[in-house]
DNA sequence: CCATTAATTTAGT
DNA sequence: ACTAAATTAATGG
């Protein structure tokens, strides 16, 4: 038995705007799903069948390269819709999504979702806000990273995890070193080297997947100076 | 079902 | 590229 969207504690900002009849419509056209860690939610190139809304858990958004070399685009937090730009800009999904931890999701019928956008301006506004924030965030991150050297990039990544994703200076991240490298466009080796340097300088503490940022201001400085 | 070992993946140099 | 460590899968009791 599915719990009501109206009382869902994980519902999106956009959904909290809907009135009773709209909520009922949404409820009748969506279903719940779960993913385990490392499961693929959907692949790039697949037809968009449903909107996937992430209620809990973190998701990796990436682009598969020709030679198994993946470009990681961003980490998607919970309470987000996956692949909205693809929904409105294309017929197929442009990116691939993988669960970084156990997820609970909702599948929403595309037409229901589109109709809500068309008929409820406030709902559409909230969706637009989230898509644009996401876009700005990503662009800034990519542009910043482009202008930086290895240490600056790694510092950037750590600050991104701590500030944007986890909102905490200690966090556990189920990304491999090469994944972190793929996120900022450097090699696995360089990632290791930078992380070790930061650790010996007492800026961070890390054991494989656990990270603790001891001196955020130092990372900030490294990030700014390149 | 649990314990050992084999195989694959990941980290570090 | 190579080695060590760690994680995961397979096997046998």
From the 3D coordinates, which CATH architecture of the largest domain would you assign?
Sandwich
Determine the fraction of residues in helical runs and give it as a percent range.
40-55%
- Put simply, the count of helices is 8
Mind summarizing the main beta sheet? 4 strands, antiparallel
Given as residue ranges, the uncertain stretches (5+ residues, pLDDT < 50) are none
CA-atom Rg in angstroms: 19 Å
Shape label:
elongated
β-strand percent reads: 15-25%
Structural class from helices and strands?
Answer: alpha+beta
- Largest sheet, order of strands side by side? 1-8-3-6
Q: What is the total tally of β strands? A: 11
Q: Regarding CATH, which class of the largest domain?
A: Mainly Beta
Q: Please provide the ordered H/E string of secondary-structure elements.
A: HEEEEEEHEEHHHEHHEEH
Q: The CATH topology of the largest domain, please?
A: Jelly Rolls
Mean pLDDT: 94
Oligomer state equals single chain
3D structure, described in words:
The chain is an alpha+beta fold and 226 residues long. It folds into two domains: 5-136, Jelly Rolls (Sandwich), CATH 2.60.120.10; 148-225, Winged helix-like DNA-binding domain superfamily/Winged helix DNA-binding domain (Arc Repressor Mutant, subunit A, Orthogonal Bundle). Helix content is 43%, strand content 23%. The protein has helices spanning 20-28, 84-89, 110-119, 121-146, 150-165, 177-184, 188-200, 216-225; strands at 30-35, 40-42, 50-56, 59-63, 71-76, 80-82, 96-99, 103-109, 170-172, 204-207, 210-213. A four-stranded antiparallel sheet has the order 1-8-3-6. Strands 2-7-4-5 form a four-stranded antiparallel sheet. Helix 3 (110-119) crosses helix 4, helix 5 (150-165) crosses helix 8 and helix 6 packs across helix 7. The radius of gyration is 19 Å and the shape is elongated.
